[in-house]
Amino acid sequence: MIGSRSVEERVVIVTGASGGIGRMTAIRLAERGARVVACARDAARLRRLAIEVPGIEVRRCDVRSPAERAAFVDGALARHGRVDALVNNAGVGWEGLVEDMEYADVERLVTTNVTALIDLTRLVLPSMIEAGSGDIVMVSSISAFVSTPPQTVYSATKFAVDGFAEGLRREVWRRGVRVHTINPGPVRTEWLARSRGWEPPAGSPEANLAAGVPVAWVAAAVERSLARPWPRSASVPRILGLVRLLTLPPLRHVVDVVTGYTSVTLASARPSDDTERTLESLPESSPQ
Ligand SMILES: NC(=O)c1ccc[n+]([C@@H]2O[C@H](COP(=O)([O-])OP(=O)(O)OC[C@H]3O[C@@H](n4cnc5c(N)ncnc54)[C@H](OP(=O)(O)O)[C@@H]3O)[C@@H](O)[C@H]2O)c1
């Protein structure tokens, strides 16, 4: 490959590496000789990863916590003297209609998918700019191309990720830092089950995998981005780049109509205990 760069000996941070895409990305890069520093919250799953692939350094870090994010990046910089690449992969979904979301769900999606990703990037950037080289990979989604109810808020976070990546790419490319976006369609991970409220028991083997492309496809796309001498945006599989066409009229109107109908169907299919809940939730002193 013209101008291809090896990942060997590069220090690469991978977030959300206890399962799914992040886990496979950490394994793939470590097998190619990268010094991978991987994080997630599930310490038992991380320990298993470290035993399976001894080259991977694992750290427990909740990326939603500003203090944990800072300690995680500072630790990697202190131990390795540099961070050559950051793979911003940790992410969560929530499936359902916006009016049914709790505030805590909104906050969890935005802080995990957007705030943490921007802040981790901010934390690694100065050392990359000083070194005159670095790669930031955003694991976004095809949901960043077309908003997809009933994952509307999730889509909004991925629009934010792609928007951030576009601006950042313009800020830093002349200073040696490449900003890449990977936009997968459905991938065979726990993500969808978790978006529907299921949580894997701590330390458990991966389960409840959704239909989709293998995680190895996305991990390979991340590796290809790190190998290129220029910034790259890639859908996985590549054909899903065509989803962007759905933003053009008249296809856009077709999407409006279809998602409008499915949203009404979802709203009428939900349990109809709304009246009861509203009455129960009124405070004692509310005017009746
Ligand atoms: N699967 C798909 O169909 C699909 C499609 C397009 C894009 N994506 C994107 O791909 C990325 C990876 O998703 P996946 O499919 O691999 O899902 P997954 O199997 O559910 O894995 C998500 C990873 O993120 C970690 N994570 C979640 N919240 C975290 C937090 N607060 N702090 C640290 N780590 C956290 C999880 O680990 P812990 O729970 O141990 O913290 C886990 O390792 C996400 O950004 C997702 O939006 C997925």
CATH architecture: 3-Layer(aba) Sandwich
Instruction: Report the radius of gyration as a whole number of Å.
Output: 20 Å
The share of residues in helices is: 40-55%
Low-confidence stretches: 275-288
What's the overall geometry? globular
Please provide a written account of the structure.
The protein is an alpha/beta fold. The chain has one domain (11-247): 3-Layer(aba) Sandwich (Rossmann fold). 46% of the residues lie in helices and 13% in strands. It contains nine helices and seven strands; from the N terminus they run βαβαβαβαβαβααβαα. The chain has helices spanning 20-31, 43-52, 66-80, 103-131, 152-172, 191-195, 215-227, 251-269, 274-281; strands spanning 11-15, 35-40, 57-60, 85-88, 134-139, 177-184, 233-236. A seven-stranded parallel beta sheet has the order 3-2-1-4-5-6-7, with helices on both faces. α4 (103-131) links the parallel β4 and β5 (134-139). α3 runs parallel beside α4. The protein starts with 10 loop residues before the first strand and ends in a 7-residue tail after the last helix. 36% of the residues are buried. Bound molecules: NADP nicotinamide-adenine-dinucleotide phosphate (NAP). NADP nicotinamide-adenine-dinucleotide phosphate binds next to α1 and α6.
